[in-house]
Amino acid sequence: MDLDLGPELLQIQARARQVAREVVEPHARSADEQRRFDRWIVRELGRHGLLDERASALARTLMLEELGRADSSVRGFATVQVELVASALAKWGTEAQRGRWLPGLRAGEVVGCYALTEPEAGSDVRSIKTLARRTNGGWLISGIKHWITNGAVADLALVFAVTTDGMTAFCVPTDSPGLEREPMRGLPLGHRAADHARIELRNVKVPDDAVLGEVGGGHRVAMGALGHGRLGVAAGAVGVLQACLDACVDFVRWRRQFGRRIGDFEMVQAALADMAADARAARLLVREAAWLRDQGRDASQAVAVAKLFCTEAALRAADQAILLHGARGYSSEYPVERYWRDAKGMQIYEGTAHVQRIVIARSLIGRDPATEAPPS
Ligand SMILES: Cc1cc2nc3c(=O)[nH]c(=O)nc-3n(C[C@H](O)[C@H](O)[C@H](O)COP(=O)(O)OP(=O)(O)OC[C@H]3O[C@@H](n4cnc5c(N)ncnc54)[C@H](O)[C@@H]3O)c2cc1C
Q1: Where are the strands (E) in 150-285, listed by range?
Q2: Can you give the residue range of the structural domain that contains 10?
Q3: Which of 66, 203, 214, 242 is deepest in the core (most CB within 10 A)?
């Protein structure tokens, strides 16, 4: 594994950093306060090549880290669009499906969402109830999905449903008759500028060629996409960690108490040092997992470790960042409270911290054939 990114990757990183700083970051606070999903930012990301699933895994983590440093809502959008939706289409889609959806997804002209979670099926994805029944020349899909990122604005939904052969993935245009969506109720703790929806499907008819992958192969599609998505979340968490460190370094240099910069107090220095150590370790974990993926090697344990460590380290950093900012950190005047609210969500979606620990432990000890399959 080469730690030197090389000129091409450095250029991608620099471009992503510039877009994140000039396009995304200036709107992060107002978008969070107004719960505003900015569709024009999506097009800008597309225009600058930040939504292209054909980039290497390493290049994509570099882009997502930069977006995460600026705004986790925008990074969350991009993770779903690229890692969950486009990567699944690229891997499992027919030529017709890829031709129909991928150019628009890459350009940011089409928005995708990944509809797996249901009110009664969260971590236990195999227990989904959404049903797809065969009908003349196609399928009728019925069920309820919730907490779907991009759900209310998406043009395309990847919907996972139960079929007689197991779980199957479907490409469902969101203007299909019978598909209704509404924003999730309640004020979310974080990711307030992201779009989260409840989607109800009532006998939504799709043709046979809407099946993504094989009939009955939906679990593999879902888990493969989540493998990409979890790495994207880990990369976004590294961005949050870095943003916390940047904010604290700046703050402790100017804030003075007891006649000294607060950065000269040892307890403050220890917090900064821990944050810097976590940031370096987290970034290396993401790089390793991306490198394994780019080599075509098994990255499942490395991805779960990266997702677990980076999201929890981001949360620790954001917690300390609020403390170091004192009362200022407790207000939206400074960004650190948003980092904390967003980091908490990262610990939950695309497999909670508990689920990542299960994945890691299972890769160490294997499944017990005598008992039921543990959760995915
Ligand atoms: C901001 C946000 C965006 C999201 N976006 C999407 C999206 O785009 N698409 C989508 O399909 N879903 C999305 N989700 C849903 C998300 O994936 C689920 O919330 C997550 O998988 C957890 O499911 P749950 O909320 O039902 O919790 P549950 O599964 O009910 O878990 C509750 C608690 O029990 C623990 N638990 C469950 N099973 C076990 C076990 N076997 N061992 C130990 N602990 C366990 C969990 O870790 C958790 O702490 C999103 C959620 C959020 C918050």
Answers
A1: 156-163, 166-173, 179-183, 196-207, 211-212, 256-257, 260-261
A2: 6-107
A3: 66
Asked if residue 206 belongs to a domain, the reply is yes
> Ligand 1 centre from 4 Cα, in Å?
36
Of 185, 217, 249, the residue at which a domain comes to its end is 217
Q: Which of 161, 185, 217 is the last residue of a domain?
A: 217
**Residue 373, number of CB atoms within 10 A of its CB:** 10
Per the CB < 8 A criterion, the answer to whether 102 and 86 are in contact is: yes
Convert the pLDDT of each residue in 244-303 to its tens digit: 999 999 999 999 999 999 999 999 999 999 999 999 999 999 999 999 999 999 999 999
Of the residues 349, 350, 371, which should be mutated to test ligand 1's pocket, given the most ligand atoms within 8 Å of the CB?
A: 349
Q: Confirm or reject: Cβ of 139 under 6 Å from ligand 1.
A: no
Q: Are strands 260-261 and 179-183 parallel, antiparallel or unpaired?
A: unpaired
pTM for the model? 0.97
Active site residue 33: no
| Å from CA of 374 to ligand 1 middle | 15
Report pLDDT digits (tens) over 86-134.
999 999 999 999 999 999 999 999 999 999 999 999 999 999 999 999 9
Residues 224 and 211 in one domain: no
